[in-house]
Each structure stands twice: as C-alpha cells, then as structure tokens.
C-alpha cells in the first residue's frame, strides 16, 4: 500500500530522474513509439532535394560536401525544432552520428528552400520558402575517405504543449552525380569563374546550388575590363557570343529585360516589380535547353533582345544563341550557368556539372580558364 511518504519518495525519485535525463527521449524510433507522436505521420518530415549529391570541396583534397533541407510539418502546425540527430552510413555500416543540440538547431539557416506557390507575383522576397512548420538548412563537409552514401535524420520537435518528441527518422541516399551531357562552355575564349557552387562561395537556392557565374576576359592580358570605367561595354565579356553547350530544344526563354545601366549595383526590387513576372525577371534574359536526357542547361543575364532562338527551336552544340549581358539580378556583365533536372529555374533541382573543353581540370571560384 502506498502511503503519503511513499508517494513523496516516488515523486522525488521521478523528479531526480527527470533532471538527470535530457528533455527528449534518448531513442524513439517510430516503430516503438506508439505514444510518442500518434498524430505525426512519417511524411511530416521531408528532405530536399529529393536526391542529394555530394561534391569535392575546392582546394581541399580530403573532404566532400553536400546540402540538405529538412522540411517539417505544415504552416497550420505549431512545431518547434529542438534537436537533430544525423547518422552517416557507408555501405549500410554506421560511421558516426552528428548531434545538433537546441542552440545549434536555432543557429541553422532557414527559409531558403524553394519558390513557394504563395509568393506574390509582385514580391521578390521569400523566394525559397516552402510551406511548413519550419525548415532547416544543413550543410555537411566530411572526409571523402568515409565514402558516406546514406544519412538518417531524426528531428525532435516540441508542440504547443512543449512536449518534446522524436519524429520518425528519414533515410536518404547521398550520391555522386554522373553527368550525362557532354557540355562545352557556352562561349569561346578566356574567362574566370567569379561565383561557384554552394561550397565554393557561391549561390544558394534549389536550382542554383551548383550554379556558376563567369566573367569574360580579354584575349591578350586575361583582364576582366577593356578600360577602367564602370560601364557595361568596358567589360571584356559584354556582348560576347553565347553558344549552346550541347544540343537540345529550347523550352523556356525571355528576351525583354532592359540592360542594367549601373555597373557594380543590382537593380532594386522596385525595378523588378515594374516588369512582367518579377521573379522570373531576376534571371534577366535567359533560356533553358532541354538536352533530352533529364538534363537542362539554363543560361541567364543575357543582353536584351540578343536571344536568337525561340521556344520549340532545336539547337546544335556550339550554335550561337545569344549575347552576354547584364540583366536581371546582376551587377556587371557576366554569364550565369546552371544544369537542372527540369525546365524551370528556381523550381527544378540544380545538378553538379563540368565542361569538357576547358584547359583546366575543374572549375572552382577564381579559376581562370579558356576554351580549347
Ligand atoms: Zn549567378
């Protein structure tokens, strides 16, 4: 029989136990957590991109990197992230576990995933937001020798009642992308990569993780400018012919965005709002080529009126298709290239790429190169 004294001891013991334990369950796999989160189905946690590709880190022979966004819940659900556990595997063997405690979770970037259907047409903000209770953006850099090929992510959340529960773990492969299309660089002559991939001082966003920005250089001194003046036509690459990096069909294009007359300054949001589809207009004049194998080349910031092909046209590799400009979200004449798994910049997934006709083995930020 339980006396008041027994109850007090029991309560003290329980309190001591709770103080000694972390606030989250130590292990709560979905199969053995009947009371853990009955209202939280497995699809509550989504990992994007759907396929995660790892790439070597520039300048570092020993590590490779990848990105993953953890998207949890829906806007109507009040869930707050409390803890993340990421388990890394190679060939089915657990290598190690990375724990993100609450403070680390709070420090992770958020709201940078993809174009939301709810993004107003007159807003260039929150481009990369996806509807969710929250999203967390993760970047991993790990030894190549580990040959990581799979991750398991467990998200711990608190709900309205401040109860912390583990959501069902999600496993995702981490792959090396094998490029299908043999691409040539979209111009002839020297250039420099001024912005690289997500792990190379560069772009972010669903279609742009692996994007590259390229400045044209003069043929003799490989300088970026013909003369020291902040004008478009002072740039060596300005109006350079842009050629199709591989054969395919034009599936998207735009040719009406005015040239940015100020160099070293991006146009303000108000400028884009005066244009049709201000989000698309961030690309400037652009085109997308469908290579017919699940890969699409997207080239942007071309000069106004310079695109000489239209949607539906079939192009051959090396065919002249436009001219380098300074349009859209651009502060000087340059070419932005991305390889996509679909026809829609901002929405399709970016893919790692290399060009086959350069004098350098691979492109990193700051690499000077020329075409062969
Ligand atoms: Zn760019």
Describe this structure in words.
With 372 residues, the chain is mainly β. It folds into two domains: 40-175, Immunoglobulin-like (Sandwich); 181-372, Glucose Permease (Domain IIA) (Distorted Sandwich). It contains three helices and 21 strands. The protein has helices spanning 4-20, 102-107, 269-273; strands spanning 45-48, 52-53, 55-56, 63-72, 80-90, 93-100, 134-143, 150-158, 164-166, 170-175, 191-195, 212-216, 241-243, 248-254, 285-290, 296-302, 314-315, 320-323, 335-340, 350-351, 368-369. Strands 11, 12, 14, 15, 16, 17, 19, 20 and 21 form a nine-stranded antiparallel beta sheet that branches. Strands 2, 5, 6, 8, 9 and 10 form a six-stranded mixed beta sheet that branches. Strands 1, 3, 4 and 7 form a four-stranded antiparallel beta sheet that branches. The chain is globular. The N and C termini lie far apart (90 Å). The structure holds zinc ion. The site of zinc ion has 5 residues, from loops.
